[in-house]
From TrEMBL:
InterPro entries referenced in this protein's UniProt entry, alphabetically: HD/PDEase_dom, HD_domain
Organism: Telmatobacter sp. DSM 110680
Family annotation (Gene3D superfamilies): Hypothetical protein af1432 (1.10.3210.10)
SUPFAM superfamilies: HD-domain/PDEase-like (SSF109604)
Protein's recorded name: HD domain-containing protein
Domain of life of the source: Bacteria
Pfam family, any one: HD
HD domain span: 17-120
Length: 193
């Protein structure tokens, strides 16, 4: 599974998200009971539909693309091919189905994946993940176009985590992001472009 994602993750920097996310999810869940097979598969496969080659190339189609249904379908296909326990397939699908900040996961694995995914959008990693999109993602033609993403993360996402451990982690990451945004405003003002 890891090697498959390593090969499919395009652009290449998308690969780092999964190992960081799995480490974060396990850290958040250190005192919780969860199925690690489900968590591992859901973490490694949850963003398959955002990779180049898995999402539409047409800009109009891409602007309406919801990667989650594709990811659930493709993940199920791959997991069956790889001999993953069939009784755990729905658990993986459920975690992927509810991994975004707007979602309300009903399983521990889903909550771990969702909270870890939120944490990845905060702090230093959140800044890097946003900045790397500038100029290569049609939504972000300039540095100033990612400011709403970073501001939204610190103002809204930081308060969306559900689990105790992730709430603590979100506070420090949000503070780091706040400091960065303040420094950026001090240094560039409205001349960032």
């Amino acid at each position: 599974m890891v090697e498959y994602i390593r090969a499919e993750a395009r652009p290449e920097d998308k690969f780092g998200h999964q190992p960081r996310l799995y480490t974060l999810a396990k850290k958040i869940g250190k005192n919780l009971k969860y199925d690690d097979d489900i968590l591992f598969a859901a973490v490694w496969l949850h963003d398959l539909g955002v990779f180049l080659g898995h999402r539409p190339q047409d800009l109009e189609q891409l602007s309406h693309w919801d990667h989650v249904p594709y990811t659930i379908s493709k993940s199920r296909e791959l997991l069956i091919e790889w001999g993953f326990p069939t009784e755990k397939l729905e658990g993986v699908a459920e975690a992927i189905r509810h991994h975004q900040a707007k979602d309300d996961p009903a399983t521990v694995e889903g909550a771990l994946l969702r909270d870890a995914d939120i944490l990845e959008q905060l702090g230093a990693v959140g800044i890097l993940r946003a900045a790397v999109k500038v100029g290569r993602d049609t939504r972000y033609p300039s540095f100033s176009s990612i400011l709403p993403v970073l501001t939204g993360a610190v103002n809204h996402l930081a308060h969306e985590t559900r689990l105790t451990e992730s709430k603590v982690m979100a506070e420090s990451r949000a503070e780091m992001l706040r400091s960065f945004l303040t420094a950026l405003q001090d240094e560039a003002g409205d001349m960032l472009h």
